[in-house]
């Protein structure tokens, strides 16, 4: 993990509880990623402290997630309790954190590429335009890789574009990475990988 990033789940489980907690964290993440897609969700951090749970959701459009007068938070709590059978909603806290520059978040960039490919836009143009946007946002380097039946061809291949430095060997380098599968019409599944170097 290096000295830059921390774990997305932070808790200590007593004997016999680890597997349950891990599976529950995965279910919560999967559910929130689908539910809050319009709000531009990037990642979900879960902290457990005794019987209290804090879920921090990183979104690019917090207004969409929170809703008018904060109704979205209560609604989300209700859905989590109902769908995932989470006990004791009173000890569940949901916080939203805004992503100031979505073009420097690798997951949001990958989602944007996926949406454009689903609309049948030319993949090379999508890659080059996205790279330009990342560089304009202040990144020191970026790399985008697409793999699959690009442009609807019969044989799958890989295409990569990069600009600037991506020092993957440097532990203190702050590199955001995301991997996503895009379901494109006619082309089937296209794998998307994004690396964004923000400096040391």
Automatic annotation (TrEMBL):
This is 30S ribosomal protein S3. It comes from uncultured organism. Residues 28-100 form the KH type-2 domain. InterPro entries: KH_dom, KH_dom-like_a/b, KH_dom_type_2, KH_sf_prok-type, Ribosomal_S3_C_sf, Ribosomal_uS3, Ribosomal_uS3_bac-typ, Ribosomal_uS3_C. GO terms for molecular function: rRNA binding; structural constituent of ribosome. Belongs to the universal ribosomal protein uS3 family. PANTHER family: 30S/40S RIBOSOMAL PROTEIN S3, SMALL RIBOSOMAL SUBUNIT PROTEIN US3C. GO terms for cellular component: ribonucleoprotein complex. The keyword Ribosomal protein applies. Gene3D superfamilies: 3.30.300.20, Ribosomal protein S3, C-terminal domain. Keywords: Ribonucleoprotein, Ribosomal protein, RNA-binding, rRNA-binding. HAMAP family: Ribosomal_uS3_B.
